[in-house]
Amino acid sequence: MAPRMPSPPGPKRPPTQTRQQVRAPVPGAAPGGARKAASQSAPKRALYWLASYPKSGNTWTRIFLANYLFDRKTPMPINQVHRIGMGDAIPKAYAPFAGGPFDPTSHEQSITIRPRMLRALASGDADLMFVKTHNARRSVLGEALIPLALTRGAAYIIRHPLDVACSYARHYGTTPEEACEGLSRADHLIVGDQGTVPQYLGDWSEHVRSWTQPRDIPVLVLRYEDLLADPTAGFTSLLEHIGVPVVEERLARAVRFSSFDEVRAQEEQAGFVEKSPSAQRFFHAGGSGKWREKIAPKKAAAFAEKHRAVMERYGYTV
User: Fold this and answer.
1) Which end of the chain is more exposed for a tag (fewer CB within 10 A), N or C?
2) Rounded mean pLDDT, 244-259
3) pLDDT tens string 79-95
């Protein structure tokens, strides 16, 4: 039976081991997305997912990878970060497969098109293709959002959920309390509009479990807080998991070029295409623990009680 379509939380808005948990390195990953002829028969397991709940550090991770993989001598413009891969919610990626007008608000149309779009992406010339996703690893209308047959591996970025709630609220123009409610709803989603197809999040704990518990693909878990404390160590783990040689000078430069100060300065100068219309800026403050200034202790305790098992597993307390 097809699952019931989730209802949005409101109109137009979606309201540790503890360092890096590493499974086996991604098999057969070629450094820097080396090229090879695309298979014309069996699907190619070329997709490497950069997965997270929204506002958990996915953009930072992609900016680092863009600077490292392109071996930049000057910082990569943040509005060109899409050059290392695409997001799985971009309507223009779906439209060519619609056979007519494409409605990005339609659950049925985007889910029907998604398998063809992803297979075409995996069948391209790149040996490894990065894909950003905020979707939980689940099925909708009988279709797996993250198809195993096309998947090489994934990095899952996790952040203290109450910090996620505060950043999420600022991004979508809601309150931290409303965001906490969204993070605790099994039917939580980002509704489709002209900038995104529907994205199926679910509650925070189930999102984390969907990516970290299965053992059918290699998954690297990166804690946002550990990346803040030691970005060199964290991003080294990511490169090793992908299968990219680690060059210390190049690594240090990419870490520097993806620092908060650098990306914040770029946004102030040129803006950032991923900024929500509801937010003053995308790169607001960075850091961790800011939720203590925004969420009442009673509300934080109630949230932690619901998500205690996953929070404790990854070293998060209130």
Assistant:
1) N
2) 95
3) 888 888 889 999 999 99
Q: Which two tokens stand for residue 261?
A: 């100060």
Q: Where are the beta strands (DSSP E) in the chain?
A: 20-22, 47-52, 85-87, 129-133, 139-140, 143-144, 151-158, 189-190, 199-200, 219-223
Question: Which pLDDT score, from 0 to 100, does residue 12 have?
Answer: 36
Cα–Cα distance, 318 to 304 (Å, whole number): 7
Distances (CA, A) of 63 to 57, 58, 248: 10, 9, 18
Q: CA–CA distance from 285 to each of 117, 167, 259, 263, 280 (Å)?
A: 35, 9, 12, 11, 12
Name 155's Cβ contacts closer than 8 Å, sequence gap at least 6: 48, 49, 50, 51, 61, 219, 220, 221, 222, 238, 241, 242
Produce one character per residue of 222-244: b if its CB has 16 or more CB atoms within 10 Å, e if not. Answer: bbbbbbbeebeebbbbbbbbbbb
CA angle 145, 148, 153 (to 5 degrees): 100
Query: Which DSSP symbol is given to 35?
Result: B
Q: How far apart are the first and last CA of the chain?
A: 39
Cβ-Cβ contacts under 8 Å for 15 (sequence gap 6 or more): 9, 168, 169, 172, 174, 178, 179, 181, 182, 188
Quote the tokens at residue 207: 């999102």
Cβ atoms of 232 and 246 within 8 Å: the answer is no
Closest Cα partner for 111 from 135, 76, 142? 142
Q: What letter would DSSP give residue 173? A: T
The token duo for 278 is 């509801």
Provide the CA 296 distance to its chain's centre, in angstroms: 28
Relative to beta strand 20-22, strand 219-223 is antiparallel
CA dihedral 57, 140, 206, 151 (to 10 degrees): -60
> Tokens at residue 188, please?
């939580």
